[in-house]
């Protein structure tokens, strides 16, 4: 359900609740300090680089999926974070506070 659609239906209180829930559900996570991080088109190092995140970047994580195992500042993992449509980064470079999945698996 998109927030735009939800905002057009229901009472004023229901609309505010949906917008507030959507705004608080999206959290941004820091990329490891001093790292310019490659963003790839899929969950692995074999996928093309689509852009590079600058030092100090923070990213949303919409879903997570297994892929190529990568060693980074936060350990070795095969978890890849979907940060935008068709954009993935290795979870080993994202400070999530967990060694496991923190978001739903990507469909």
From TrEMBL:
Gene3D superfamilies: SH3 Domains (2.30.30.40). Residues 37-94 form the SH3b domain. Pfam families: SH3_3. It comes from the Bacteria. This is Uncharacterized protein yraJ. The lineage of its organism: Bacteria, Bacillati, Actinomycetota, Actinomycetes, Kitasatosporales.
